[in-house]
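User: Hi! I have a protein structure encoded as tokens and I'd like to know what sequence might fold into it. I'm fairly new to this, so please keep things simple.
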């Protein structure tokens, strides 16, 4: 991530799960990109996934493709969608039943936001939209809203 992604993108949130992952990133302006990526910044992502695949293949003495499907990506067009994605990403381990407490899930960026420790995340960008003091409360509210919606859709109380 540090070698391949950070030179071309700001990372706002992530969550790594057993069978998929989520990254919320913003591609840097062309002037801020390393020369080798100025025309094709997407090559950094290709290099990242190739390096990851090679590492996993070497570690587990395997060969071939690691990813079954191509990446899915969505453009974030407005602030509302941006902040909804932060909660969606951090709450994803609960949604997929990898944990019952998103706050303790160690493979997401949530802890980086609430700890204040040095991080490669661009927390300040997100804190322009979500007050740092309300960050945890805001996630809890989004979790409750999604549970209520699910219960309504499934017909339970």
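Assistant: Happy to help. Inverse folding works backwards from shape to sequence: for each of the 157 positions I chose a residue that suits the local structure. Here it is:
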């Amino acid at each position: 991530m540090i070698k391949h992604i950070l030179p071309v993108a700001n990372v706002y949130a992530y969550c790594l799960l057993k069978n998929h992952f989520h990254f919320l990133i913003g591609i840097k302006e062309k002037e801020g990109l390393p020369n080798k990526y100025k025309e094709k910044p997407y090559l950094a992502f290709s290099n990242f996934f190739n390096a990851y695949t090679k590492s996993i293949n070497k570690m587990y003495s395997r060969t071939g493709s690691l990813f079954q499907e191509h990446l899915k990506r969505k453009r974030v067009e407005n602030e509302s969608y941006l902040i909804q994605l932060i909660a969606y990403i951090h709450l994803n381990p609960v949604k997929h039943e990898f944990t019952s407490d998103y706050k303790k899930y160690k493979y997401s960026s949530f802890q980086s936001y609430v700890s204040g420790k040095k991080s490669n995340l661009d927390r300040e960008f997100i804190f322009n939209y979500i007050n740092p003091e309300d960050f945890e409360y805001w996630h809890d509210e989004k979790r409750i809203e999604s549970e209520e919606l699910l219960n309504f859709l499934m017909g339970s109380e």
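A useful reference point when you look it over: The chain has one domain: 9-154. Feel free to ask if any position seems puzzling.
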